[in-house]
Amino acid sequence: MPIKQVPIARWEGGRSHPATDSLGVEATLEVRVEYSFKDRREIATLGLTLCTPGQEVDLACGLLYAEGWITAASEIAAIHPQPGSVLVSLQAGIEPAGATRRHLIRTSACGLCGREELPTLAEASASVEASMPINLLYELPARLAAAQPAFQRTGALHAAALFSLEGELLGLREDIGRHNALDKLVGHRLQLDALPLTGHLVLLSGRAGYELLQKCAAAKTTFVASIGAPSTMAVELARRQNITLIGFLREERCNVYTHPHRIMENVPSA
What we know:
By secondary structure, the protein is an alpha/beta fold. Helices cover 23% and strands 36% of the residues. The protein has two domains: 27-106, Ubiquitin-like (UB roll) (Roll); 132-264, Cytidine Deaminase, domain 2 (3-Layer(aba) Sandwich), CATH 3.40.140. Helix 1 crosses helix 4 and helix 4 (178-191) packs parallel to helix 5 (210-218).
């Protein structure tokens, strides 16, 4: 991830001295989509988002998936990344019925900026027979931290990580915006033709707000865990979407807000 060194005056106790600090880079990215509409081709701008440079194609694909423009990688004809923008061309004849045609400016803090209404929710996932032992769940924050060297240097980047139910780290994306990190993660899986995320766990480095749970629900995620707190709307959405939602995940402690039957007690060794 891009990191920039900047000069600072560092105070320690009652004295200051010249030093440098590592900052996460923030830049603008325009996401556009070319699609078919009434026997003609149109180009729509999904918005101008503030994000951490890098993995822009993942971000664009994940945003298109979350917004309902695409449901599979096979619907994409071509991707045209340029400095400061990404244009995704859909296959001829595809008219995205669920697409939200809008112009917006998305900050790195908010995934719903510019909206006049909440996004259409995906149909609830069928109940999934899946489980995770609590001792393995407790280990995931440390595994996430070990895979975040840029965060260790800057303290500025959010992360979204994908784990198997055996605790294997399958993917991780970082960004100065929490919703961008999740879009990058989902967009990468989309290009691998590895969606939905049923039977997997997404770990969020910060809080679990509604907009993040909506993206996880669209990807049919079974478990969502966060280092921080969930919101009331996120809990309600997780309940309706058959998602096991975990918050305040720390070593030896967490809260399970919905569908707690999927979390198991430790199994004693034989």
